[in-house]
Write a structure and sequence with these properties.
Mean pLDDT: 88
Number of strands: 11
Helix content: 25-40%
Oligomer: single chain
Distance between the termini: 109 Å
Strand content: 25-35%
Number of helices: 5
Low-confidence stretches: none
Order of helices and strands: HEEEEEHEHHEEEEEH
Shape: elongated
Radius of gyration: 27 Å
Structural class: alpha+beta
């Protein structure tokens, strides 16, 4: 081996070592990014579903805003399209392509996920490709697992919090005041109220028509939602709030009238 060949081999080995070190640094940075910073777009491909428009690829993304723009980890799967009554069905037509891109700040995943999407600012600038192939897939899978575990933990915590709240929901509502509840505007005939109890968003509502009256009770947090299925509990929860709010309104009216004297 001559000196020139030896030098090239040493430089190549050093380059590989530098790349490995850099990849470890990137992986560590992503792993230590707060999971709730990542937004997810798209869902696993389901060949049984029907969609109103055809498309050439099925997209799934994880993305977050950075100082430089939107960092997008993207899984793009080519699909074959068949039209059935009710819409288009898609099935995998080849291996998925994984890429990591830098897009403009405020980027919307609809640009990839919705074939009918048209941005308000004209044509989107081409993304900057940061990584692809095996490296991009590894990083995508790692973020996918981190976000999945985080959301599963959120779901468990949410279910536990809902169970504690609903076990004594009437008592919890009784500890609130009318001022705690915000009127929720809805469709014609719908009246609702919303408040926060134990870091949970509680909404009670009533839909009244000429033939029936229906009630609802929902609890939400971080995009998670629980809906009550007990008609008696839904009605009682709404009644407690509605009476409290109406009584408070009458008390204010009474005070206004007293001031007139």
């Amino acid at each position: 081996m001559n000196d020139e060949t030896k030098k090239r081999d040493e430089e190549h080995g050093a380059g590989k070592a530098d790349a490995a070190t850099l990849l470890d640094k990137i992986r560590n940075t992503l792993a230590n990014t707060a999971p709730d910073r990542w937004e997810q777009g798209g869902e696993p491909l389901d060949s049984n579903r029907r969609f109103p428009r055809a498309r050439e690829t099925w997209e799934q993304v994880f993305f977050t805003d950075t100082k430089s723009g939107a960092l997008v980890l993207r899984c793009s799967t080519p699909v074959s399209t068949q039209y059935h009554g009710g819409g288009y069905a898609f099935s995998e037509a080849g291996p998925s392509r994984f890429v990591i891109e830098l897009r403009g700040r405020g980027w919307s995943p609809k640009a990839l996920l919705d074939p009918s999407f048209r941005g308000a600012g004209g044509m989107e600038k081409p993304p900057q490709l940061l990584a692809d192939g095996v490296v991009a897939e590894q990083l995508y899978r790692e973020i996918e697992l981190i976000v999945k575990q985080f959301r599963e933990g959120q779901r468990r915590e949410f279910n536990d919090a809902v169970a504690r709240l609903t076990a004594n929901i009437k008592e919890a509502i009784g500890e609130t005041t009318a001022a705690d509840w915000q009127v929720v505007e809805g469709d014609v005939g719908v009246r609702g109220y919303r408040t926060e109890i134990n870091n949970l968003t509680v909404t009670v509502a009533c839909l009244a028509s000429d033939v029936s009256t229906q009630y609802s009770l929902t609890v939400g947090r971080h995009g998670l939602m629980w809906s009550c299925r007990d008609p008696f509990l839904m009605q009682e929860a709404y009644r407690l709030v509605d009476e409290s709010v109406k009584t408070a309104s009458l008390e204010r009216l009474d005070k206004v009238l007293d001031d007139m004297l």
